[in-house]
Write a structure and sequence with these properties.
Oligomer: single chain
Shape: globular
CATH architecture of the largest domain: 3-Layer(aba) Sandwich
Number of strands: 7
Structural class: alpha/beta
Mean pLDDT: 92
CATH topology of the largest domain: Rossmann fold
Number of domains: 2
CATH class of the largest domain: Alpha Beta
Helix content: 10-25%
Distance between the termini: 43 Å
């Protein structure tokens, strides 16, 4: 995204991962603002982000923390901002991942706050090979106002 001219902020809890990412950004001659932080308490201002991409994070978050994850995304996204979530399917490795399913998305991303697109199959590639995964786009809609 930085190569296309977007302002990019990268967040990771791991200092080592941030060093690797920073080196890769330098090699690609792109500017990225790196921040160390936890996705459950993002080091990002309220309503300051247009687009979030999650490549394999949601499927690592336990159900007990998923409401906080969704709340943090809602907090940092601008109104009508989007989040793209990619992660393991229920079929890929249920013993290793908390999969991305229609039920999980419905449970943790309230229809009052997010409009959800279809959950689609997609391969997710890593050093270990391809993983059967799912991808979904969510758009922040904000709380609906009651009409009287």
């Amino acid at each position: 995204m930085a190569q296309c001219g977007f302002k990019v902020i990268g967040v990771d809890i791991s200092a080592a991962a941030l060093r690797i990412a920073e080196k890769r950004a330098e090699e690609a001659h792109v500017k990225v603002e790196w921040r160390r932080g936890n996705v459950l308490k993002l080091p990002i201002d309220d309503e300051s982000i247009d687009f979030v991409t999650d490549r394999g994070l949601f499927h690592l978050i336990e159900d007990a923390d998923r409401p906080r994850y969704a709340s943090e995304l809602f907090r940092v996204l601008k109104n009508r901002g989007c989040v793209l979530i990619r992660g393991a399917s229920a079929e890929s490795a249920p013993d290793r991942f908390n999969p991305i399913t229609e039920e999980a998305l419905k449970r943790f991303f309230s229809a009052f706050k997010f409009k959800r697109g279809p959950v689609l199959p997609v391969p997710l590639f890593s050093v270990e090979g391809a993983l059967d995964a799912r991808i979904v786009m969510l758009k922040k809609t904000g709380p609906k106002k009651l009409r009287i």
